[in-house]
Amino acid sequence: MPSDSLCFEANHLSRAFGHGRRRRLAVNDATFTIREREIVSLVGQSGCGKTVLAKMLLRLEKPTSGQLLFRGRPIDAAADPREHWRQVQAVFQDPYAAFNQFFSIRSQLKAAFHLFPQRPSEREMEERVDQALLAVNIRPPDIEGKYPFELSGGQMQRMLLARIFILRPQVLIADEPTSMVDACSRAGILEYLMKLKEELQMTIVFVTHDIGLAYYVSDRIFILHEGQIVEQGTPDAVTQSPTSPVTRQLLDDIPSLHREWIGRAPRA
Amino acid sequence: MTPILEVDRLSLHYRTRFGGRIHAVDDVSFTLQKGEILGIAGESGCGKTTLVSGLMGLLIPPLHRTTGAVRIAGRDILGLTPDEARRTVLGREVSMIPQGALNSLNPTRKVKDLAADVIRSHDERADRSAIHDRLRERFTKIGLDADAVLDAYPVQLPAGTKQRVVIGISTLLNPKIVIADEPSSALDVSTQKAVIRLLFDLLDEGIVSSMIFITHELSLLRHVSSRIAVMYAGQIVELGTTEQVIFDGRQPYTRALMGSMLSAEPGQKARKPVAIEGAPPYLGQELHGCRFAPRCPVAKPDCAGRDQVLREVKNHWVRCHHAE
Ligand SMILES: Nc1ncnc2c1ncn2[C@@H]1O[C@H](COP(=O)(O)OP(=O)(O)OP(=O)(O)O)[C@@H](O)[C@H]1O
Ligand SMILES: Nc1ncnc2c1ncn2[C@@H]1O[C@H](COP(=O)(O)OP(=O)(O)O)[C@@H](O)[C@H]1O
Ligand code: SF4
Ligand SMILES: [Mg+2]
Ligand SMILES: [Mg+2]
Fold first, then answer.
1. What is the CATH number of the domain that holds A57?
2. Whose Cα sits closest to atom 7 in ligand 3?
């Protein structure tokens, strides 16, 4: 259950890129709150500003105007950014970019323990890596001695999730964490993530274009369009009585098993 | 009618640094007809991308052929060296839209240079202005603002445009077969729809004649492909028409895939997606018996000990001796 205290609070938050005539607002006047232990999904077309917004929550991008509070304090006031990153962890879009191509996967997963103030024993680290791998549906021998380029796209993306399962953060920002993961593994990963969320009382911000995913996991969904939050609400409200034409279009474009989608039959 | 592509009992393996073998594709057979879109679905790591390397004749170590053949218009392309394959197969016979295509374009070069390379790789004497005209014509045809896009660097383009550019470049030489490896899973639903429209247009315009569409989204295949092959642990476990596989799947794994889908349709939330317990088998060892047995919700005592073959059930192909 989400609590009443606020994890994030944004007031008229904007982020612009470019100067003069080329100036564009990637995030435009966003006002919202995210409560502790809440799961919020940011949904929208590509380029709508999801990642920029997520990066501001992570203190990786500075707002050009407006205010952003984390647990009641302005984010940019924190002296050491690492303090913020100890509390807020992220899984980012491109799994290949997130891992170093020259080190084995396993050693990089173990390196996650460096972020802990106290490293567990060698044996416990190995065990926790194995546990995290199984949670993302990968058999430990499948990655034994392997480097990032030796895994498939979906396997690589699951390594990122495994790292999160090792780190067990309180606040997680996940940018398209399952875009390359197949439906079966995704269902399993979500199940595990939901369990972990209960156990650790996590707050999670999902950035996704997958409304199915957002619908299934979120307490609330924010629909973004051209930098603006055009709709916020519970999954049922957003999908069943959308108020914005943007939301209606998005829902309409979901390929469904049960209705016409692209106006022509598959080719024989 | 002779098929445009014939995959005949193909097995491929990766050699590991420790002298072992990973059998990523095992005894895969299917055909592709002219004008057809074949969908391939399956869990990540099941061998889809490896299969694609084989279909392009690109056996680059550590990937090797174990047995079998890939024939395009009767010719076995796996007999070619990677160099010959690059010259005579890639781009003209088969072209691929790679997984993670959005990042596949060299960011340091303009789109027009990337595209010109493709033409020059097959026609060294083509002159600049002829190439430029050809690029403009093609990019306009696929709905791009040709002048602006050709002069841009890949990073300056929005995701949907970038994906169109990748598709435009990979089909410049009018390949007979286009293989799209998860072309749209990194895109939002609206952009995805536009990309699929574009692929359909390429077929309608006769720029390409057949397509293989790889995705883990069965609900998307329902609208895209005429037949579907479901893969599990390197093998095809079900092959039939889209209707048969999606609405009347006979192989327990296919059914499990269907059951794990997430949907934002009204009334669907009550239907919790069911994960399949466990992980697929490690492909670096000899496997005996049904590969799905440890995870199969309807496994019987005789399954684990019995190798499964594709057999005909309800007018299509199923790898499960209990299916009926
Ligand atoms: N560093 C930057 N410099 C200039 N423009 C930027 C920068 N980062 C993002 N943008 C622009 O801001 C807008 C929003 O980008 P963002 O990456 O947040 O989109 P997104 O919703 O995450 O899209 P996708 O689903 O493709 O990842 C885009 O128009 C993008 O081009
Ligand atoms: N270069 C490689 N060396 C060793 N194993 C590999 C290599 N590339 C892929 N594999 C393995 O082959 C199997 C199939 O991979 P892949 O074809 O990429 O799967 P998919 O595209 O279906 O996700 C996986 O088990 C993967 O780890
Ligand atoms: S052979 Fe047995 S274990 Fe394998 S899919 Fe069929 S029922 Fe399941
Ligand atoms: Mg993004
Ligand atoms: Mg792949």
1. 3.40.50.300
2. B299
Chain B partners of A96 at a C-beta cutoff of 8 Å? 100, 103
Domain of A47, in residue numbers: 1-87+171-182+204-268
All structural domains of chain B with their residue ranges = 5-105+176-318
Reply yes or no on whether the pLDDT at A267 is more than 60.
Answer: no
ipTM, 2 dp = 0.79
B190/A253 touch (CB, cutoff 8 Å), yes or no: yes
Residue A9, SS3?
strand
CB B316 within 8 A of CB B238: yes
User: Is A200 at the interface with chain B, CB within 8 A?
Assistant: no
> A217 vs chain B: nearest CA distance in angstroms?
10
Which residue, chain included where needed, has tokens 């607002």? A25
Minimum Cα–Cα distance from A97: chain B residue: B103
Q: Is residue A115 part of a domain?
A: no
0.80 exceeded by pTM: yes
Q: What are the tens digits of pLDDT across the range A45-78? A: 878 999 899 999 999 899 999 999 999 999 866 5
**Is A111 inside a domain boundary?**
no
Q: What share of chain A is helix, strand, coil (3-state, %, to 5)?
A: 40, 25, 35
3-state secondary structure of A41: strand
Does A1 reside within a domain? yes
Q: Return the CATH fold of B5-105+176-318.
A: Rossmann fold (3.40.50)
Total number of domains constituting chain A: 1
How far lies B75's CA from each of B3, B4, B8, B203, in Å?
Answer: 12, 10, 12, 23
pLDDT per residue over A173-213, tens digit each?
Answer: 988 777 767 777 777 778 777 887 888 889 999 998 878 78
